[in-house]
Amino acid sequence: MEKEFSPKILSFLCKWCSYTGADLAGINRLQYPTSILPIKVMCSSRVDPVFLIKGYFRGADGILVGG
Amino acid sequence: MSLKNRAVMVVGAGIAGIQAALDLAEMGVKVHLIEETASIGGRMPQLDKTFPTNDCSMCILSPKMSECARHENITIHIKSNVLSVKGKPGDFTATIVEKAKYVDPVKCVACGLCEDKCPVKVDDEFDMGLRKRGAISRYFLQSLPSEYTIDKEKCLYLTRGVCRLCEKVCPANAINFQDIDKEIELSVGAVILATGIDAFDPIGFGQFGYRSYKNVVTSLELERILSASGPMGGHVVRASDHKEPKNIAFIQCVGSRDESINHNYCSSACCMFAIKEAIIAKEHMKELDVAIFYMDIRAFGKDFDKYYEKSKNQYGVKFIKSKVSEITELEDGTLKLRYVLENGEIKFKNFEMVVLSIGLEPRKNMRELAGKLDIQLNEYGFCKSNTFSPLTTSREGIFVCGAMNGPKDIPESVMSASGAVAETTKYLRLERQEIKEKKIKEIDVVGNRPRIGTFVCHCGINIAGVVDVKKVAKEAKDLKNVEHSEDLIYACSQDCLETIKKRIKEHNLNRIVIAACTPRTHEPLFRETIAEAGLNPYLFEMANIRDQCSWAHMNEPEKATEKSTDLLNMGVAKARGLQPLERLPISINPKALVVGGGLAGMNTSLTLADAGHEVYLIEKDEKLGGNLNNIFYSFDKDPQVLLEDLKEKVSNHKLIKLHKNTKIEKIDGYVGNYTTTFSHNNEKQNVEHGVVIVCTGAKEHVTEEYLYGKSDRIVTQVEFERMLKYNQLPSPKPKNVVMIQCVGSREEGRMFCSRVCCTKAVKNALIMKEKYPRINTYIAYRDIRTYGFREKYYTELRDKGVMFVKYDIEKKPDVKLVDEFDPDSKALVTVFDPIMDKEIEIQADLIVLATAIDPLPENDTLAKMLKIPLNEDGMFLEAHAKLRPVDFATDGIFLAGLAHNPKDIDESLAQSKAAASRALTFLNKKAILAEGTIAEIDESKCTGCRYCEQVCSYSAIEVDDEKGIAVINNALCKGCGSCVATCRCGALDLRGFSNLQLFDAFDAITMTDILGE
User: Fold this and answer.
1) Which residues form the domain of A58?
2) To 10 degrees, what angle do helices B639-652 and B599-610 make?
3) What is the DSSP letter of B889?
4) What is the pLDDT of residues B262-276, one digit of tens each?
């Protein structure tokens, strides 16, 4: 059976803002697909372009940088 | 007076109370923070966004909240009230009552099961009654302390003896119905009051139909509606039919500037509040029509006018100067507004939703509190303080901050809080603090193979209810380097923490990974725990499988379990590369450098010197006082008396080294360790100091408008004030005096409000009326911005018959000289009067121009020396517009006075106290610890390209010109890693977040749903 497409999204979350935002989504019990995987960074500016390339090589469909 | 106490009681834990507590705690003072509700935070958590940056309010506040909740010097007393304060300054005994919470705060894990099962549903105060809560609840989602409490008045068991459901469902056994109110005595040296304000309840204003018309809401209710975590999930809908409104009207000054209810003051924040809500609502719904019905738009704060202009030009918000007299409700819930324009014309317009911009008023319990504390209130019921002592109450040793003594916006509240802290220092025994020695010797793990221990937390059923915790823990056993793995019911409970420590010893573990809630709240606790077992605290990693997994995927237990495994795998992969990190001590030189000897500079210097610190006060001019030399009147005492008093104290203080006529040549160094070179008559001198406070001031704008300089009868407000003081008005006595406001302010090239000019014009016009009652005064203005209690004087002036003529920027008043060749020529002023709806002509014997306040051109030089930023207007740019108004992003440099933004005497006094207080948080330490997570450099790879230097916000990395390579300043690095991402040569890396660690973490991702099929 064909599975419904659910994009795999790696998300780089700044520890000061968007990581807190992701926590808040949980506290609010907002539901989102499990195919979104968070990675905490000290700041969105820590995200080296190489991380994005590496992420796509590993098969991610999309990458979110939250800052 | 021999000082022995080193504790302070702070009453009220809103943003002002939190800031005061944090500053005191950082100075080594013990703080008792008393809060009436069940959480610290105050009003800010209720707000969706903050102007003018549109920052999320909760996001900017929560780091301060958690720092406050965690600080070892701060004891938080929630659900508590003050009963009395006895004794004398320096040695008070305060009695407080801590109400019964009926939940054991140590046992409660804030899982929320109790509230789900609680059969009682009452209006939630935090959400303005737009949502229901249980009798057992927490104040809001991000409450701190996070424990639940029971509302005694609403609980079925406590009122009627039945139910006890919460007790049955609580997995942590935390419910305690035997809990009782406790009276506690506190010995404190001083008290800071920060109990805030209430929002005005418009229920008494029948003409607006609040509560009877469903689609009329208050601005605070709209704030909750706009909030993504609010009752509507951030969707703007009207209550009557849950449809998105097509248009919204804001009615300003509801409960403000209203003598009929003894609110003859301006609430200061509501104009910006409405503009912000209008912008945010427009961002939610592009097609929305927003109109703001106002009297004057008071966008007087830093960068506020730019925001106001943006709302008009970019967002299309309409502003209608008028008075709304009545609202009627139509059958479909639409609201018909009847409003009167300036020229008396009556108009009607329909809106689908109406927002009442409610004002601020004293807390309901102010009188009672004032009685208990023996402090005086002002005529409106706010705590009483004066222009020249804006932070003191009528009782010595008790200080006030925040909006408790007058409506204030957030940055002013923060400034006054830090300022009040500086006021308390003279009643406390302060000592410079040492860095605390580590209690337990660290195990050396360098060079050892990683031996990782993993612990997976159930968090009761919060995680285990969704995720198969045992499976996750079992699978982790097979991971490389994992020596031990187990699941724990509550990893953060005392017995589990002991278990973790035991396992470290048993299995000789040298890296720990805990899969549980969020590192945001629990990382400090776990790090402390492994340190107690002898591990370096940085040998720790957390996997967030609750907030970002079990709670977000409640209906997908299998996938959530897979994701948890992945998150733990990634944590383990990252942990393999962890190295012990050292927080290096940075010594702090106890001396301070204050740049600028005006009001702010002198006040900062005195505060620091009184706290025992040597100060170098540098003034470029021959005389002290700056702009204060030109101010002769205030609504309080004589400003010249204040000036003389400060000058005398500064000149005679043995700890203040005053350098007049002196220029700063060079400032080198970083927090705690600055070296400054300054010169006086070409003689150079070097001094060393720990902090820098920038108080360089600003200057009066020199205008060419309105024929200034062409006749002696066209003067500025500053010149006019001097004429009034020394009775130098032209003779014979003028018949007509015309004042023109906003000369140079609020227009292209200077899009900011100079803030003080409206009040100055009102003040000087009042003085003139008093001295020469027969002179006719005309004031041409754009908006009268007499914010706060200044409003009273504006009303008084209008009652005295002064003519106010509003002009538009497109139609500025026209000034013509009667005789061009006469240097003392009278003038003819033509201006369009919207009330009469026609142009009027005034024969002016004197024209007074309210010229703008300009930043100093030399700001640029100092900014470069200190590597600190200026905003687009050329004013110094603080670390954060709302919450760090006297700090710079770079540690050790502070800001006060007009160099920050135009401001009044009381505001400069408060801000300069605040700058001193923030400086004291460093100066009262012998050394501080640098961050552990900081950048490091491989010198062999660096090419000195300077990219890192350009991106660093903290001036923490610089290329050494001799060696040609970048050097990191450990004291300033905040570990953000932007330099690492920018480095083209791979020379930079971030300790604890290295490129290799992150690559390893990617490689550890196995979940099929995420990557690969």
Assistant:
1) 9-66
2) 50
3) S
4) 999 999 999 999 999
E strand intervals along B236-278: 247-254
Whether residue A45 and residue B978 make contact (CB cut-off 8 A), yes or no, is: yes
Tell me the helix, strand and coil percentages in chain A, rounded to 5: 35, 25, 40
First and final CA of chain B: distance in angstroms? Answer: 77
The token pair at B590 is 């106890």
Task: State both tokens at B326.
Answer: 């009545």
Q: How far is CA B244 from CA B118, B232, B248, B284, in A?
A: 33, 12, 10, 10
DSSP B171: T
Any chain B CB within 8 A of the CB of A23? yes
Contact B143/A at CB under 8 A: no
Decide if B1005 touches A, using CB distance below 8 A: yes
Q: A21: nearest CA in chain B? A: B59
Q: Is the peptide bond before B52 cis (omega within 30 degrees of 0)?
A: yes
Closest listed residue to residue B302, CA positions, set B905, B955, B873, B1010: B873
Question: Is the C-alpha dihedral spanning B762, B766, B771, B776 positive or negative?
Answer: positive
CB-closest option in B548, B977, B1002 to A46: B977
Q: Has the ipTM of the complex gone over 0.85?
A: yes
Nearest CB to A34; choose among B56, B559, B981: B559
CA distance B594 to B658: 10
Q: Model confidence over B329-376: pLDDT tens digits?
A: 999 999 999 999 999 999 999 999 999 999 999 999 999 999 999 999
Instruction: Count CB-CB contacts under 10 A for residue B411.
Output: 23
Q: Is residue A4 part of a domain?
A: no
pLDDT given for residue A1 in this prediction: 46
Note the pLDDT of residue B1011. Answer: 47
How far apart are alpha carbons B620 and B626 in whole angstroms? 10
A39 falls within a domain? yes
Asked if the structure places residue A1 within a domain, the reply is no
H/E stretch holding B585: strand B585-587
**DSSP state string for B503-552:** HHHHTT--EEEEEES-HHHHHHHHHHHHHHTT--TTSEEEEE-IIIIITT
Domains of chain B: 1-99+181-196+363-431 (3.50.50.60), 100-179 (3.30.70), 198-361 (3.50.50.60), 452-576 (3.40.50), 587-697+856-925 (3.50.50.60), 701-852 (3.50.50.60), 932-1006 (3.30.70.20)
Query: CB–CB of B141 and A27 under 8 A?
Result: yes
pLDDT grade for A2, boundaries at 50, 70 and 90? low
* Residues whose CB falls within 8 Å of the CB of residue A17, separated by 6 or more in sequence, listed in order: A66, A67, B56, B59
Asked if A48's CB is within 8 angstroms of B995's CB, the reply is yes
Peptide bond into B145 cis (omega under 30): yes
Residue B16 in tokens? 């002002």
Three-class SS of residue B895?
strand
Q: How far apart are CA B764 and CA B410, in angstroms?
A: 29
Nearest CA in chain B to A10: B1010
Domains: count for chain A: 1
* Residue that the structure tokens 């610290």 belong to: B40
